């Protein structure tokens, strides 16, 4: 829980410039709708239209849930963390670590969430708030 609060504060402070009037980001919690996934050796792009299914994330303070066509496909507790080194496929250092195993780098905006698989030539998964 402390990790989530510290990360939220860090992201809020890092996202605002002194010269601009900006609002703090909303954070990772909430519902996210899959827009597209990009990557792989061939540089492929997949969307709900090309794949014939939808994905939705429901994230609260403790659980990360992924639904495919409204059926629960993945559920895990998670922690938000900051790496001491940049993560694969990005210059970012923030990531989500799943209690069930695995981790993804994350970029969080007010309306867009990008999850970045941690392997060479892996995928960027883009989600937006409904």
Task: Write up this protein.
By secondary structure, the protein is mainly β. It has 2 helices and 9 strands. An 8-stranded antiparallel barrel has the order 1-3-4-5-6-7-8-9. The model is unreliable at 1-25 (pLDDT under 50).
Low-confidence stretches: 1-25
Order of helices and strands: HEEHEEEEEEE
Q: From the alpha carbons, calculate the radius of gyration and give it in angstroms.
A: 15 Å
Structural class: mainly beta
The coarse overall form would be: globular
Distance between the termini: 26 Å
Main β-sheet description: 8 strands, antiparallel, barrel
Order of the strands making up the biggest sheet: 1-3-4-5-6-7-8-9
Mean pLDDT: 82
Proportion of helical residues: 10-25%
**How many E-type strands?**
9
Number of helices: 2
Key descriptive features of the protein:
2 helices, mainly beta, disordered N terminus
Offer a quick outline of the entry.
By secondary structure, this protein is mainly beta.
Detail the topology: elements first, then pairings.
Blueprint: H1 2-15, E1 30-39, E2 44-46, H2 48-51, E3 55-59, E4 63-68, E5 71-82, E6 94-98, E7 103-108, E8 112-117, E9 123-128
Antiparallel strand pairs: 1-2, 1-3, 1-9, 3-4, 4-5, 5-6, 6-7, 7-8, 8-9
């Amino acid at each position: 829980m402390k990790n989530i609060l510290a990360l939220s504060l860090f992201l809020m402070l890092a996202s605002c410039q002194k010269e601009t009037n900006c609002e703090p980001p909303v954070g990772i919690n909430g519902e996210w709708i899959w827009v597209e996934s990009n990557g792989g050796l061939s540089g492929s792009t997949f969307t709900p239209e090309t794949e014939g299914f939808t994905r939705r994330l429901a994230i609260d303070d403790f659980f990360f849930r992924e639904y495919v066509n409204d059926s629960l496909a993945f559920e895990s507790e998670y922690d938000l963390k900051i790496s001491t080194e940049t993560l694969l496929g990005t210059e970012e250092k923030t990531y989500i670590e799943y209690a069930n195993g695995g981790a993804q780098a994350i970029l969080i905006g007010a309306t867009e969430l990008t999850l970045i698989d941690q392997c060479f030539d892996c995928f960027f998964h883009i989600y937006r708030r409904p």
